[in-house]
Each structure stands twice: as C-alpha cells, then as structure tokens.
C-alpha cells in the first residue's frame, strides 16, 4: 500500500553499505522507513533522510517498516545540523520523543510542538527554556504532570511554595517540607517560569531573561523529576551535560 505523510525525522542511522533507516514523527504516530541508497552522494533520498528534516514522505507499507519511494523537503533545519550546540539540544528533543512515545501513539499537539521547538532553536531562542517547555509537554502526555500551582501534599498555596519534591510530584509549602527529605529548594522566579512553560505553546515563545540561579534550579528540578518518574538513560542528555562541563553551552 502506497502512503503519503508529513513528518519530521527524529532518528536516522546507516543500514548496510548504502542505505539508511529513518524514523519519523507524524501527527498519526511514529513511522519507520527504509531509505534505500540514501547514503550515496547523488541519492534522491539523501536530503529527506537527514535528522530533523521536515518533509512530505511517500512510501510503500508492507509490514512494520515501510520503504521510502519519494520525499519533498518542507524545512531542512540545516542551520541546526551545522551547529554543534543547536544540534545537541535538538537531538535531546528528538530522542525524548522517540523514547517516550509508543509507535502507534498519535499526537497532533506533540508533532506541532516539536516542529515549533526546532524552529525556535534554529531562530536562536533560548534552548534551555525550549527543552524544559518540551519536557513538560512530554511528561503531560505520559501522565506525569508536575504540580506547580499548589502544595502537592496539603493543597494550600497561600503560605508560599519554597520547595519542589520530585518524588511527590510537585511543590511543597512551608508546613509540608518534612514530607520529603530530598526536596529541592526553588525560588519564586523559577516556579513562575516553570508554571509558564507548562502552559506555553512553543509557537508563541518570546524572549525571556533568566538568571543563572534560576536556570540551575529549573534544570535540577526537571532532571530529578524525569529521573524519578520516567527513568530514561538518554545519550543526548549525557552529551549536553558533557558540553556544559567543558564550558560549551549557552550563557
């Protein structure tokens, strides 16, 4: 059966001497295709088999893996692939999607938000805010939505929310801090930004100045929450951490 679908390449790897296997995110779910001859210099499949590429794909489906017949690029995102740091952030997004979504799990919203996130990274928007906003959307899809609006233990919010509990799933008020000995301190600015990112449509991302302390708290909180509830070992996250360790990151 011949099919046509719009998608974004979220994974691409070599197969044999001249072929590639590519995995797409589409609004209908993930699709895996064999792109025969895509590694060859003059291959007609070469451009649309590149990681992050958004394209219209025509393929023959006969089983779990389809065979790519043709593709027409919509947006190549070449500026991301040619920049090591942008590519590292974008790779984290695509690996997160690939690892967290089931093959047949359809989500028009996640497709549109991934496209918006890649567009924002290419446009030099703050990549740390982009990945945290996207993490929150993936967590919501998986059924693990952090609570930022009130104390996750008692429900009140009038006394302030000074700490985040990854294990309990949200903020703690001063009266409930003892509920989690491993809670993470979070200032009001960090809380407001995370709550905003949770609601944000990435297509409307603007420019926001964020302090180093707030960035540190956001990263610690999101990493701890994901590690506690999702437990994924992501190669792209390890690479980003190595880049930060050696001073190759956004200031």
Structural class category: alpha+beta
Uncertain segments are none
Q: Which CATH-level-2 architecture of the largest domain?
A: Up-down Bundle
CATH class of the largest domain: Mainly Alpha
What is the overall shape?
elongated
Tally of separate helices: 7
Average residue-wise pLDDT: 94
CATH topology of the largest domain: de novo design (two linked rop proteins)
Q: Helicity level, as a percent range?
A: 25-40%
The CATH H-level superfamily of the largest domain is Recombination protein O, C-terminal domain
Kindly report the spatial arrangement of strands forming the biggest sheet.
Answer: 1-2-3-5-4
In terms of DSSP E residues, the strand content is 15-25%
- Intertermini distance: 50 Å
Rg on CA atoms, Å:
20 Å
Which H/E pattern describes the elements? EEEEEHHHHEEEHHH
Main beta-sheet strand count, sense and barrel state: 5 strands, mixed, barrel
User: How many beta-strand segments?
Assistant: 8
Question: Overview of this structure, please?
Answer:
- It is a single chain.
- The chain is α+β, with helices and mostly antiparallel strands and 251 residues long.
- It folds into two domains: 75 residues, OB fold (Dihydrolipoamide Acetyltransferase, E2P); 167 residues, Up-down Bundle (de novo design (two linked rop proteins)).
- The chain has seven helices and eight strands.
- The strands form two sheets. It has a five-stranded mixed β-barrel.
- This is DNA repair protein RecO.
- Pfam families: RecO_C, RecO_N.
- InterPro entries: ARFGAP/RecO, DNA_rep/recomb_RecO_N, NA-bd_OB-fold, RecO, RecO_C.
């Amino acid at each position: 059966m011949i099919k046509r679908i719009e998608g974004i390449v979220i994974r691409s790897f070599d197969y044999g001497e001249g072929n590639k296997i590519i995995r797409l995110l589409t609004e209908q779910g993930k699709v895996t295709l064999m792109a025969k001859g895509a590694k060859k210099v003059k291959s007609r499949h070469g451009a649309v088999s590149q990681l992050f590429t958004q394209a219209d794909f025509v393929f023959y489906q006969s089983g779990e893996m389809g065979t790519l017949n043709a593709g027409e690029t919509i947006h190549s995102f070449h500026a991301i692939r040619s920049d090591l740091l942008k590519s590292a952030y974008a790779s984290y997004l695509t690996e997160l999607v690939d690892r967290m979504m089931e093959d047949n799990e359809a989500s028009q919203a996640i497709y549109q938000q991934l496209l918006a996130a890649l567009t924002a990274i290419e446009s030099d928007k703050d990549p740390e805010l982009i990945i945290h906003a996207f993490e929150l959307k993936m967590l919501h899809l998986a059924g693990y939505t952090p609570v930022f609006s009130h104390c996750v233990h008692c429900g009140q919010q009038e006394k302030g929310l000074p700490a985040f509990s990854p294990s309990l799933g949200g903020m703690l008020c001063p009266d409930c801090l003892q509920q989690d000995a491993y809670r993470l301190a979070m200032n009001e600015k960090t809380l407001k930004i995370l709550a905003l990112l949770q609601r944000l449509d990435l297509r409307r991302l603007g420019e926001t100045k964020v302090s180093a302390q707030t960035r540190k708290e956001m990263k610690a909180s999101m990493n701890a929450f994901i590690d506690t509830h999702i437990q994924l070992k992501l190669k792209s996250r390890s690479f980003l951490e190595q880049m930060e360790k050696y001073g190759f990151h956004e200031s």
